Amino acid sequence: MRAIIASLLCGLLFGLGLLISGMSNPARVLNFLDLSANWDATLAFVMGGAILVAAPGMYWVRKRNKPMFADKFDIPTSTTIDAKLILGSAAFGIGWGISGFCPGPAVVAIASLQTDVLLFVGA
User: Fold this and answer.
1) How many alpha carbons fall within 13 Å on the CB side of residue 65?
2) What angle do CA 7, 84, 106 make, to 5 degrees?
């Protein structure tokens, strides 16, 4: 139960960060990808800030013998770069570039009840 509560709190914190940073607004993402006069560097600063927070946290976590709420770390062992990985990555990037949404911000944006958001999440 503690793991579920911790996961919920982490998800809520992540969603709040997306809202505060404006990353649940697809126009921000699309303006970041548009290198013309409308270019918006906000996404780069959000990513940089996330790295500054996550890097020390990951360093601390990797020093532990086991996770706080599990018996062992569940770290993927495969390093294979295959067609499924490449096609999935390409589909993710193309979808993000076309719509301005990726799964996390889209779920946060559901609260707006906008038709485009509901169609994206429903798809």
Assistant:
1) 0
2) 40
Instruction: Give the angle subtended at the CA of 61 by the CAs of 16 and 50, to the nearest 5°.
Output: 35
Look at the block and give the residue holding tokens 């958001």. Answer: 117
Residue with tokens 């579920």: 4
Mean of the per-residue pLDDT values for the chain? 89
Q: Which domain holds residue 85?
A: 2-122
d(CA 116, CA 122): 10
The total of structural domains in the chain comes to: 1
| Residues with Cβ within 8 Å of residue 73, at least 6 apart in sequence | 66, 67
Mean pLDDT across the stretch 84-93?
96
92, pLDDT greater than 90: yes
CB-CB contact of 32 with 44 (8 Å)? yes
* Rounded distance between C-alpha atoms, residue 13 and residue 34, angstroms: 29
